[in-house]
Design brief:
Structural class: mainly alpha
Strand order of the largest sheet: 1-2
Number of helices: 9
Length: 224
C-alpha cells in the first residue's frame, strides 16, 4: 500500500503548490477475495478493487470509468483555483481513443515480454510534436502539399496507437489540402493541436494505470 500512499501524497503536494497534476487511477487486482481487503485498498488511496478472474470488458469498463473520474477531479481542482482551464474540448478517453487498438498492442507486448505500449507511446509523443511543428510551417507558408503529407503521416501514426479522434481531424485536413480547398487551416491546426494534447494525456493515463496496478504476492494480501 505504500506506493499508493506515496503517489497520493505527491498529488496532494502538487495541488497545495497550485500546480494540480492529473490524478492517477489505481485499481488493485487480486486472485483472492478476502474480507476487508477492498476497504484497505480504498483507505490507502486506491480507486477500486478487482478480483480475478475478470473479462476484458470488465477491465475496460473499470479503466474507462476511473479515467473519466480522474479527469473530473482535475478539472474541479483547477476551477477552484486561479489556474486557467485548458483550451479546447474536454473529452474522455472513450471519446479520443479506441481502446480495442490499445488492447491489441498490450496483447502483443505481453506475448513478447516487452513494454510495447509504453515504447510506442514515447515514439508517438515525440513524433506528434515534430508533425505539429511541420504542420505549423505548412500552414504559415500555405504549402498544401506539405500540409497533406504531414497530416497523412500523423493520421496514420495516431490510428496505429488508437488515437482515433486525432486521426479523424488529420484526415479532414489532409483531404482539404489534397483537393486544394480554400479552408481555415489555422483553425484545423488548432484543433489538431488540441487533439494531440488530449490523446497524449489519455494515453499517458492508461500507461500510468498499467504500472500502478498491483497484485498480491501472498494469499490474502494486496500490495499497494
Amino acid at each position: 500500500y505504500e506506493a499508493t500512499r506515496e503517489i497520493r501524497r505527491r498529488e496532494d503536494l502538487a495541488r497545495l503548490a497550485g500546480t494540480p497534476m492529473r490524478r492517477m487511477p489505481i485499481v488493485a487486482l487480486t486472485a483472492h477475495a478476502v474480507i476487508g481487503d477492498r476497504q484497505k485498498c480504498l483507505d490507502a488511496g486506491m480507486d477500486d478493487y478487482l478480483v480475478k478472474p475478470f473479462s476484458e470488458a470488465e477491465l475496460r469498463n473499470y479503466i474507462s470509468r476511473h479515467l473519466q473520474q480522474s479527469q473530473v477531479l482535475v478539472e474541479t481542482t483547477v476551477s477552484a483555483g486561479s489556474a486557467p482551464a485548458p483550451v479546447g474540448k474536454q473529452e474522455s478517453a472513450l471519446e479520443v481513443l479506441d481502446l480495442s487498438v490499445i488492447s491489441q498492442i498490450r496483447l502483443v507486448g505481453a506475448r513478447s515480454g516487452k513494454p510495447l505500449f509504453h515504447r510506442l507511446l514515447g515514439v508517438f509523443t515525440d513524433d506528434s510534436q515534430q508533425r505539429l511543428s511541420d504542420l505549423q510551417r505548412g500552414v504559415a507558408e500555405t504549402d498544401l502539399q506539405l500540409i497533406a503529407e504531414v497530416a497523412h503521416a500523423l493520421k496514420s501514426s495516431a490510428a496505429n496507437i488508437g488515437a482515433v479522434a486525432l486521426s479523424e481531424e488529420c484526415r479532414l485536413m489532409e483531404a482539404s489540402a489534397r483537393e486544394g480547398r480554400t479552408a481555415n487551416y489555422e483553425s484545423m491546426l488548432t484543433e489538431i493541436g488540441c487533439q494531440v494534447r488530449l490523446a497524449i494525456e489519455a494515453l499517458q493515463d492508461l500507461d500510468q494505470a498499467e504500472y500502478a496496478v498491483t497484485s498480491p504476492v501472498k494469499e490474502g494480501q494486496v500490495n499497494g
